[in-house]
Amino acid sequence: MNPTSISKTSGEAPSPEAPSPEASSPKVLYRILDANLDRAREGLRIIEEWCRFGLNNVSLTEQIKHLRQTLGHWHSDEFRQSRDTPGDPGTALSHPQEEKRDTLQTVVQVNCCRVQEALRVLEEYGKLHSTDMAHGAKQMRYQLYTLESKLLGHDVRQRLAKACTYLVTSPHEQLLGIVEKALQGGIDIVQYREKSADDEVRLELAGKMKSLCHQYNALFIVNDRVDIATAIDADGVHLGQHDLPMSAARQILGPLPIVGRSTTCPTEMKRAIDEGADYIGVGPVHATPTKPGKAAAGYEYVRYAVANAPMPWFAIGGIDLTNVAAVRAAGAPGIAVVRAVMQADDPTQATQAFVQHFS
């Protein structure tokens, strides 16, 4: 009996066809590597243009350019010579989501994903060609995850969401020394607040303070002055009720820095929510010389914020080590302090005491 007949009558599937010689040739591998090197380089160029023209950020532009040039070094002539664009079935494929972009940030995010996917392909198929290239693609993909977080402002907002202690500075002869002591004590955010110094002095101090904050992995915010915050590339700016509208501040700052707003009542909180503030100050909880003539909002407003504030917020106003426990008990997820640290005999120890209430 014919063995083929037995196979068919017994319900066995026919043997698969042997792969064509081309399917097992280096050309297939080279076409895959070529296509994904092209895809990754194109995506990086789109991201690079955003860093250059959208963010005006030299450091990020240089990082992306270096990645793109590294890929160019891997893109050999033998890969390009294997290219068969007319015979590529993928060129005719599309998806409605690929044909529309809503915002500039969407363009950046989509192309970050595109590059990450291409790097994963290069990592896996690269193992068949060069272990160095495969390893390099893997490391580059991890690097791009971090860069994406910076490009879209996710890293700053993630740190904001975790922050519990916030120092607002006041003029002092040893300003930078006190700020560093507070940073050593574990303060999460520092806001540089100065109402009377010359702009040249403010600009210099703000730059030095930002460097200190970043040395200790703390966020640095400038009070009121959007121009100074922009000039030194601060993490954000804090606006009072009579400062610039949020939309104007964002237009100057760009999309990455965070913008906070002071609020003293539910109406002001609603405005901040509608504006899209990244965080708010809630207070003054107690009367404070920092806000002369401003009546204390008290614990009732703190409890209102607990129930209604959708963004990170910090209770502020006359908070010190004698009442911080009551503020915490009222539900405040974080506090902002001024005199309790700026005028403390030991700013590091005072800061540590505040941090312990939120640990």
UniProtKB/TrEMBL annotation:
<feature type="compositionally biased region" description="Polar residues">
    <location>
        <begin position="1"/>
        <end position="10"/>
    </location>
</feature>
<protein>
    <recommendedName>
        <fullName>Thiamine-phosphate synthase</fullName>
        <ecNumber>2.5.1.3</ecNumber>
    </recommendedName>
</protein>
<feature type="compositionally biased region" description="Basic and acidic residues">
    <location>
        <begin position="77"/>
        <end position="86"/>
    </location>
</feature>
<feature type="region of interest" description="Thiamine-phosphate synthase">
    <location>
        <begin position="144"/>
        <end position="359"/>
    </location>
</feature>
<dbReference type="Pfam" id="PF02581">
    <property type="entry name" value="TMP-TENI"/>
</dbReference>
<feature type="binding site">
    <location>
        <position position="243"/>
    </location>
    <ligand>
        <name>Mg(2+)</name>
    </ligand>
</feature>
<dbReference type="InterPro" id="IPR036206">
    <property type="entry name" value="ThiamineP_synth_sf"/>
</dbReference>
<feature type="binding site">
    <location>
        <position position="318"/>
    </location>
    <ligand>
        <name>2-[(2R,5Z)-2-carboxy-4-methylthiazol-5(2H)-ylidene]ethyl phosphate</name>
    </ligand>
</feature>
<feature type="compositionally biased region" description="Low complexity">
    <location>
        <begin position="12"/>
        <end position="25"/>
    </location>
</feature>
<dbReference type="InterPro" id="IPR013785">
    <property type="entry name" value="Aldolase_TIM"/>
</dbReference>
<feature type="region of interest" description="Unknown">
    <location>
        <begin position="1"/>
        <end position="143"/>
    </location>
</feature>
<feature type="domain" description="ThiD2">
    <location>
        <begin position="31"/>
        <end position="149"/>
    </location>
</feature>
<dbReference type="GO" id="GO:0005737">
    <property type="term" value="C:cytoplasm"/>
</dbReference>
<feature type="region of interest" description="Disordered">
    <location>
        <begin position="1"/>
        <end position="25"/>
    </location>
</feature>
<keyword id="KW-0808">Transferase</keyword>
<feature type="region of interest" description="Disordered">
    <location>
        <begin position="77"/>
        <end position="101"/>
    </location>
</feature>
<feature type="binding site">
    <location>
        <position position="223"/>
    </location>
    <ligand>
        <name>4-amino-2-methyl-5-(diphosphooxymethyl)pyrimidine</name>
    </ligand>
</feature>
<dbReference type="InterPro" id="IPR034291">
    <property type="entry name" value="TMP_synthase"/>
</dbReference>
<feature type="binding site">
    <location>
        <begin position="191"/>
        <end position="195"/>
    </location>
    <ligand>
        <name>4-amino-2-methyl-5-(diphosphooxymethyl)pyrimidine</name>
    </ligand>
</feature>
<feature type="binding site">
    <location>
        <begin position="288"/>
        <end position="290"/>
    </location>
    <ligand>
        <name>2-[(2R,5Z)-2-carboxy-4-methylthiazol-5(2H)-ylidene]ethyl phosphate</name>
    </ligand>
</feature>
<dbReference type="GO" id="GO:0009228">
    <property type="term" value="P:thiamine biosynthetic process"/>
</dbReference>
<dbReference type="InterPro" id="IPR041397">
    <property type="entry name" value="ThiD2"/>
</dbReference>
<comment type="similarity">
    <text>Belongs to the thiamine-phosphate synthase family.</text>
</comment>
<feature type="domain" description="Thiamine phosphate synthase/TenI">
    <location>
        <begin position="166"/>
        <end position="341"/>
    </location>
</feature>
<dbReference type="InterPro" id="IPR016229">
    <property type="entry name" value="TMP_synthase_cyanobac_bac"/>
</dbReference>
<keyword id="KW-0784">Thiamine biosynthesis</keyword>
<dbReference type="InterPro" id="IPR022998">
    <property type="entry name" value="ThiamineP_synth_TenI"/>
</dbReference>
<dbReference type="GO" id="GO:0000287">
    <property type="term" value="F:magnesium ion binding"/>
</dbReference>
<dbReference type="GO" id="GO:0009229">
    <property type="term" value="P:thiamine diphosphate biosynthetic process"/>
</dbReference>
<dbReference type="GO" id="GO:0004789">
    <property type="term" value="F:thiamine-phosphate diphosphorylase activity"/>
</dbReference>
<feature type="binding site">
    <location>
        <position position="291"/>
    </location>
    <ligand>
        <name>4-amino-2-methyl-5-(diphosphooxymethyl)pyrimidine</name>
    </ligand>
</feature>
<comment type="pathway">
    <text>Cofactor biosynthesis; thiamine diphosphate biosynthesis; thiamine phosphate from 4-amino-2-methyl-5-diphosphomethylpyrimidine and 4-methyl-5-(2-phosphoethyl)-thiazole: step 1/1.</text>
</comment>
<keyword id="KW-0460">Magnesium</keyword>
<dbReference type="Pfam" id="PF17792">
    <property type="entry name" value="ThiD2"/>
</dbReference>
<feature type="binding site">
    <location>
        <position position="262"/>
    </location>
    <ligand>
        <name>4-amino-2-methyl-5-(diphosphooxymethyl)pyrimidine</name>
    </ligand>
</feature>
<feature type="binding site">
    <location>
        <position position="224"/>
    </location>
    <ligand>
        <name>Mg(2+)</name>
    </ligand>
</feature>
<comment type="function">
    <text>Condenses 4-methyl-5-(beta-hydroxyethyl)thiazole monophosphate (THZ-P) and 2-methyl-4-amino-5-hydroxymethyl pyrimidine pyrophosphate (HMP-PP) to form thiamine monophosphate (TMP).</text>
</comment>
<keyword id="KW-0479">Metal-binding</keyword>
